[in-house]
Design a protein that fits this description.
- Helices cover about 40% and strands about 20% of the residues.
- By secondary structure, it is an alpha+beta fold.
- Strands 1-3-2 form a 3-stranded antiparallel β-sheet, with no helix packed on it.
């Protein structure tokens, strides 16, 4: 079974947009009416695949990382400054993800 990149990307985009709209525009539940503010942000994922790209298993390792973080992002506010280390299947730190403010 292969990784469906389109579905994963759509899922991350939907979760990200729902979180941003509810948290940062002043339109979320229980918020007072206020002028919408625009907060442009980026989700940045950086993974070092090493010299051998996990001995030819890059698709498997990257798929595992994306599936894990795709499900785990719900535990973060997804605001600038949020982020975490990313580990491979041998629990070696191989990168990080972060939310940054766009210029």
């Amino acid at each position: 079974m292969g990784l469906n990149w389109h579905e994963l990307g759509a899922s991350l985009k939907k979760h990200f947009n729902e979180t941003i709209e509810g948290e940062h525009t002043g339109t979320g539940p229980g918020k007072q009416d206020q002028e919408e503010e625009s907060l442009a942000m980026k989700f940045v994922l950086e993974v070092d695949m090493g010299d051998t790209a996990w001995e030819g298993n890059a698709a498997r390792e990257l798929g595992r990382i994306l599936r894990y973080w795709g499900g785990n992002l719900q535990h973060y506010e997804l605001k600038p400054g949020d982020g975490a280390a990313v580990s491979d299947s041998d629990y070696r730190e191989v990168g990080s993800w972060s939310i940054t403010a766009s210029a």
